[in-house]
Design brief:
Length: about 190
């Protein structure tokens, strides 16, 4: 059974992951990426992270929810690339984890796994943030999944970005306060 290190070492950084998509898929991801911007306070928060963390996203380059959320996490990682190592793996490429990563009985994406610098599991979350669910509930298009053809509203992007930032900060604080790492770094 492959370990976290095996999965993480074969996962791709954002740009290389996107390069595997069609031109249309890349365009959809980039339109959300272009809308997503951390404000100065958010940038300062992420820049202040002291612990290294690894984030592995099980995604689908084709998936509307991934289109509308993964570029936001990339923006967060870019704000402190020295402390946040973000990688992506196509869900179909990680079949051995499919059962372990099921949410509400289904194979959903994105699923985001957070790990310490030395590969210890900290948290798993997905498939949508609270604000993403709220936006979908308002639109209520039925059982079909969003296509990502049209970009989300800027206010929705900002709210979902804040949700993801809260989760990344929560794990960062977990790493910052854990006795094991405090002893290692003498802080």
């Amino acid at each position: 059974m492959p370990t976290f290190s095996d999965h993480f070492s074969t996962a791709l950084p954002y740009d290389r992951y996107l390069a595997n998509g069609t031109e249309e898929q890349q365009r959809r991801w980039m339109q959300v990426y272009d809308i997503a911007q951390l404000d100065a306070t958010q940038q300062q928060l992420v820049a202040g992270f002291q612990r290294e963390m690894k984030i592995l996203i099980h995604s689908g380059i084709w998936c509307g929810d991934c289109v509308e959320q993964c570029p936001l996490i990339q923006r967060i990682a870019e704000a402190n690339s020295a402390k946040i190592d973000l990688r992506f793996v196509e869900r179909q490429m990680s079949r051995e984890l499919a059962e372990e990563l099921r949410i509400n009985g289904g194979s959903r994406v994105p699923v985001v796994q957070f790990f310490s610098e030395d590969g210890l599991w900290c948290a798993t979350t997905g498939d949508r943030t609270l604000n993403r669910y709220r936006a979908l509930a308002l639109k209520r298009l039925g059982p079909s999944c969003p296509t990502g053809i049209l970009p989300p509203e800027k206010s929705e992007v900002e709210a979902t970005l804040a949700d993801w930032l809260n989760e990344v900060e929560r794990v960062q604080l977990m790493l910052r306060l854990t006795p094991r790492l405090r002893e290692k770094y003498q802080d």
